[in-house]
Design goal:
The chain has 245 residues and is α/β, with parallel strands linked by helices. It has helices spanning 36-45, 57-65, 91-95, 111-117, 132-142, 161-178, 186-197, 200-206, 208-215, 219-225; strands at residues 8-12, 27-31, 51-54, 72-78, 81-82, 103-107, 123-127, 148-152, 183-184, 235-238, 241-244. The strands form 3 sheets. The chain has a 5-stranded parallel beta sheet with strand order 7-2-8-1-9, sandwiched between helices. Strands 3-6-4-5 form a 4-stranded mixed beta sheet. A hairpin with a 2-residue loop joins strand 4 (72-78) and strand 5 (81-82). Helix 5 (132-142) crosses helix 6 (161-178) and helix 6 (161-178) crosses helix 7. The longest helix has 18 residues, at 161-178. It is globular and about 50 Å long.
């Protein structure tokens, strides 16, 4: 049998599974498909200089208070409701607020929290359907042999279908890229099988958050987040800020 030369790929289905987990030396890819990481990838792709993920609204307001007034856009939500005085947290709506050349101060219920909770890992990346191939290629090229941990943000301790399908897409791409050199955990295999069984658009529109977005007339945001590997950009978390590698 050939020696494994690629990373071992594992999936956590909720950010709460990070509690007590030893992250030192691991490569973490955080997913919050609807919508935090999809928004982060889109914002950086469209010219935001960096994204500052915060744990909550008050952290975002404190961060914004330290920045020059015209240097940033503050966006976010709590329990799917846009924070008062903030730009909307969804990718396409946020683009209308002029991100090019400015920082994004960003607070969400789950995704930005998962990013901050993952900061103890050796390397932390923001992943989405939109940039999955770029992230997988970067991890395989720059972190061979290291454990790659795909972290689904979930929602308030519950699993989210859209993140599980997204994790399955990442697992599928890792499997294709690594072949026999890689190793998928049982959780990664389960996510891969779920992805194979569900069309992402249908799954995202069928999940709890997707149905909520449909009721708000935001079907286009959900369909956008379901697009696969259309952005070749890899956001890396360093010093609590996300910038393209």
């Amino acid at each position: 049998m050939s020696a494994r030369t690629g990373p071992k790929v594992h999936v956590l289905f909720r950010k709460e599974e990070l509690d007590g987990l030893r992250l030192s030396g691991k490569v973490v890819v955080v997913l919050d498909i609807l919508f935090a990481t999809s928004t982060i990838v889109t914002a950086l792709h469209h010219g935001a200089t960096e994204v500052i993920p915060t744990l909550d609204e008050w952290g975002a307001r404190a961060q914004a208070a330290q920045l020059p007034e015209d240097s940033f856009v503050a966006a976010g939500e709590l329990n799917a409701n846009t924070l008062e005085g903030f730009a909307p947290p969804t990718p396409l709506a946020l683009l209308e607020h002029g991100l090019r050349g400015r920082m994004l101060v960003y607070s969400t219920t789950n995704g930005t929290v998962a990013l901050r909770q993952s900061a103890g890992a050796a390397h932390v990346y923001a992943g989405a359907m939109l940039n999955a191939e770029a992230v997988v290629e970067h991890v395989c090229r720059h972190h061979p042999g290291e454990t790659a941990l795909i972290v689904c943000s979930g929602s308030a301790g519950n699993v989210n279908l859209e993140d599980m399908v997204g994790a399955g897409y990442f697992a599928e791409l890792f499997a294709r890229r690594l072949g026999a050199a890689g190793e998928l955990s049982d959780a990664a295999l389960a996510a891969r099988q779920l992805y194979a069984a569900r069309d992402p658009v249908e799954a995202f529109l069928d999940c709890r958050v997707g149905r909520m977005m449909l009721e708000r007339g935001l079907r286009h945001e959900v369909e956008f987040a379901a697009r696969r590997s259309q952005i070749a950009l890899v956001p890396r978390l360093e010093n609590d800020r996300l910038r393209p590698v």
